[in-house]
């Protein structure tokens, strides 16, 4: 392949391998075999980062860079390089840090790749449950080797809706949304990892997932999974979404429109 025709299957295989290896390294920290050295971003006790987050991101970034030096990179902990590259890796080394640091199993490694600005490759590795969610545009999505399919439900009563909100982000729409969801017979789940909840939508375990404001490293990988599994999503990357984040909704086709109406216009406004 030349520089103008990126080798996408090779990048898909790389994403899966590196996500798995990073997840195994994460387990060594999680199980207490490595020192976590916890710090608080900007001194805020609610926004934690550990040596595991930074070490895993450095490992992932080095592996991707070694294999494809021409590609760009955006990660939660180490920032960005070559954002204009055709292939742009978007990485969260540990999604679910609060769970990770509190001994809860809901965390994962999320490695996504944009091709020309569109989500194209996704790998989400959950070592505690031995699940690797992966997909590439046009090739389907899988958990380990099982194909993923979103739920066939047609009403929020028929299952669980993932929800999320981060302490420092606009929450004024959130409580009215939950009130309406409950009034309609729905039920919500917040497990602390947006990347995992997105993978669970692709797998049909959750009907959908709504977060008031998510970052691109939380969901670029998952957006590939959801699209390949037959789900819908809002225009998450619009505007400055890649760098600043946006409100986020993914869902199976049978409930997407209704959940979107419950959220209201803020879903696709700034
Ligand atoms: C967080 C998780 C959480 C979501 C937050 C994210 P982090 O990511 O995805 O589920 O509600 O908005 O910031 O900090 O654990 O990587
Ligand atoms: Ca995250
Ligand atoms: Ca993270
Ligand atoms: Ca974080």
Explain this structure to me?
By secondary structure, this protein is an alpha+beta fold. It has 2 domains: 8-145, Fructose-1,6-Bisphosphatase, Chain A, domain 1 (2-Layer Sandwich); 156-268, 3-Layer(aba) Sandwich (D-Maltodextrin-Binding Protein, domain 2), CATH 3.40.190. It is built from 8 helices and 15 strands. The chain has helices spanning 8-30, 51-67, 97-101, 174-183, 194-202, 216-228, 241-244, 253-263; strands at 39-40, 48-49, 72-75, 79-81, 87-95, 108-115, 118-126, 131-136, 140-143, 146-147, 160-164, 187-189, 208-214, 232-233, 246-251. Helix 5 (194-202) packs parallel to helix 6 (216-228). The model has no long low-confidence stretch (mean pLDDT 94). Residues 92, 95, 218 line the site of one calcium ion. One calcium ion binds next to loops.
